[in-house]
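#lab-general

N.A. 3:47 PM
ok so I finally got the sequence cleaned up, no stray characters, all 270 residues accounted for. can someone with queue access submit it? mine expired

B.Y. 3:52 PM
send it over

N.A. 3:53 PM
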Amino acid sequence: MIIGTRGSELALKQVSIFINKFKLKDCAIKIIKTKGDITKKSLQKIGTAIFTKELDKALLNKKIDLAVHSLKDIPAEGFNTKLEIAAIVERADPRDCVIGNIFNGSVVGTDSIRRQYELKNYYKPIKLNFKPIRGNIQTRIKKLDNKEYGAIVVAKAALDRLKIKKGSIFSIKQMVPAAGQGAIAVVKRKKDKFSFLKKDRLYDCCMLEREFIKDLGGCKKPVGAYCSCKNKKFNLVGLVYKGNRRILVDFSGNKEGMMNKIRRWKAKHI
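B.Y. 4:20 PM
back already:
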C-alpha cells in the first residue's frame, strides 16, 4: 500500500497517526509536492485545492493507493466524483489560538479571511492590521520571533501534534473554526475497498460541517462550522458574515434532521 502526503512535518505526523491507529504494515509513504507548498499567493484568491490537487491526480493515476490530508484543506465544492473521503482518522482540538500580542495597531499574520473577520469582531473597537503569512507552523513562529508580526493565528491542533505549547485559545463561539479543522482525512478512489476504513459519528460531524459551508464560499469567504455529537445527538455551530454582520447559527438533532435544517437555512439565506 502506498500512502500519499505532503512533505511538511505536520503532514508526516498525520500519516504516522493514521498508520499507527490502524496498525498498518507493508506500506510506503510517497511525498508529493503540491502547488500550495511553493506558491506565495493568498488562499483567499486561489483556495485550498492547491494543497490537494496533485495528490488527487496521483490517486486517479494509481501512483498512490490512499491520500492523507488535513480535512480543512479538502474543498467542500468541486471534489472529484471518482474520489471519496473514506474516513476521518482522528480529530485534535479544533479551536484557533493566537501567539504573540494583540493591541491597537498590531500587525497580525493570517491568510484566513474567516480569522480576520472573527478577530475584528472579537477585538473591536481596536484597529488591527492584517498581513498574509504562509509556510509551516515553525516558519510562522520564526517570523513572529523576528518581529515581522506582532501576533499570528494558528490552529491549536497543529500546535498539539507538533508538541508546541504556545498561544491563547479562543472558544468555539469566539472564533468559529474552519470546517474540518483538526481532523485528519483519508481519501481513496471511490471504487476501491479498504475494510479497515469506517464512516463513524466523527465522520458524520465533519460531513455536516462541510455541508454547512458548501456554496457559501469556502476559504474565500468568512464562514466556519463546528459539529459535535453526544448520545447520538448532533450539535452544529455555523458562522457566516454578511458584510460586517456576524451571523451565528446553532442547530441540533439527528443526522438526517441536521442535513435538512442546514439545507433549509441555506436556501433562505444564500
